[in-house]
Amino acid sequence: MINHFGSPVSIVIVNHNAGALLVDCVHASLEQGKQVIIVDNASSDTSLALVEARFAHESRLQVIRTGCNLGFATACNIGAANSSEELILFLNPDCLLGEHSLARMVRVLEAGADTGMVGGLLMNPDGTEQGGGRRAVPTPWRSFVHAFGLSRLSSRWPRL
């Protein structure tokens, strides 16, 4: 499954003025993925110049310039259409893949025949878990509780 080029995954990064964060993201991605695609939504900062200077001879890196800001979803679709691998990871440019995290996600995905999508645990720089990174499957009850702000009462009624 995993060869010397990393996990069999195309990593798509949508960029719009991410600055130096993009360089760190690409570096971590190249260490673990087989292909890295940056779809740039008309950045006006130095993010692409920094990446191109640092990874000038990296054949596994592809940069696609859209020429205008097409939005995140459209840029993801462009990246997916240009991917060479069966598996695709959409990664924000301010994210860094933890050591072996991509390989672990691939193992989890391949272990379950009924699993169609996986995601990593989102951590803050201080090592704490990001609050919005883990979500439960939406149900009518959860939607009701959220819509009416009843979750603030969960200390009294844990079932909320």
Quaternary state of this entry equals: single chain
Over the alpha carbons, how many angstroms does the gyration radius reach? 18 Å
Total number of helices: 5
Order of helices and strands: EHEHEHEHH
> Which percent bin holds the helix content?
25-40%
Q: In terms of structural class, how would the helical and strand content be classed?
A: alpha/beta
* Average predicted local confidence, pLDDT: 90
Reading side by side through the largest sheet, how are the strands ordered?
3-2-1-4
Our measurement of the CA-to-CA distance between the termini, rounded to an integer number of angstroms, reads 42 Å
- Estimate what percentage of residues fall within beta strands: 15-25%
Gist of the model:
The chain has 160 residues and is α/β, with parallel strands linked by helices. It contains 5 helices and 4 strands, in the order βαβαβαβαα. Helix 1 (21-32) crosses helix 2.
Chart the SSEs and their pairings.
Elements: E1 7-15, H1 21-32, E2 33-40, H2 47-54, E3 61-65, H3 72-81, E4 87-91, H4 101-111, H5 140-147
Parallel strand pairs: 1-2, 1-4, 2-3
Keywords:
160 residues; alpha/beta; four-stranded parallel sheet; 5 helices; 4 strands
Structure description:
- The protein has 160 residues and is an alpha/beta fold.
- It has helices spanning 21-32, 47-54, 72-81, 101-111, 140-147; strands at residues 7-15, 33-40, 61-65, 87-91.
- Helix 2 (47-54) links the parallel strand 2 (33-40) and strand 3.
- Helix 1 packs across helix 2.
- The mean pLDDT is 90.
